[in-house]
Specification:
The chain is built from 9 helices and 3 strands; from the N terminus they run H-E-H-H-E-E-H-H-H-H-H-H. The protein has 220 residues and is mainly alpha-helical. It has 2 domains: 66 residues, Winged helix-like DNA-binding domain superfamily/Winged helix DNA-binding domain (Arc Repressor Mutant, subunit A, Orthogonal Bundle); 140 residues, Four Helix Bundle (Hemerythrin (Met), subunit A), CATH 1.20.120. Strands 1-3-2 form a 3-stranded antiparallel beta sheet.
Amino acid sequence: MQTLGFRRPNQVREAVYRHLKDLLLSGRFAPGERLSEPLLAQELGVSRTPVREALMRLAEEGLVELVPGRGARVRVFAPEEVEEVYRVRALLEGEAAREAALRATPWELAELERLLRAIDEAHREDYPEQMRRDLEFHRALVRLSGNRTLYRLYEDLLATLALARSALPTLSQDEATRREHRAILEALLHRDPEGARRAVEAHVFRFRDLVVGRLRKEGG
């Protein structure tokens, strides 16, 4: 983990918060994993105070749980919560894909294709980096809708989705995932709004079923 080079207190606080949130979104921490204030402070080269404040902010956002007497840990989501979030994701991302098929420029679609290739170019054993690139592909897709309200709502879901997705970190380069991503892109390239929506929904619901199945299996 890199040491943060900011000096001003406000910069340090914001940098620590952003850095820890990025790590959570990339799946660097497993659900339920303990987050040690002293260890994180040492690794980041800061005092414990900005780490504590960052963990409190992340707890307010529902990403971290503060356990009295035991510190902080990465939140574990119930299968029912994950199902709800994925249903909303399918609605938002499906509509975004539909709108993107109608308005995205050839240059924007070329960039989306580059982001798709970047997923497979990540090191085969670096699952957090694969997840980060996968997430960036989907964020770019939603941005192509041109719908700022939709994108803002989608951003609110991302942290929960990333933590839930970390239960199955190896799927970004999975062959089925590749086919689904390609089907989304092909529908956009062919200016097929309903096809793009259906391709996104098929992708999202397959992931929902896999993640929920894993959570229920682990829950006994």
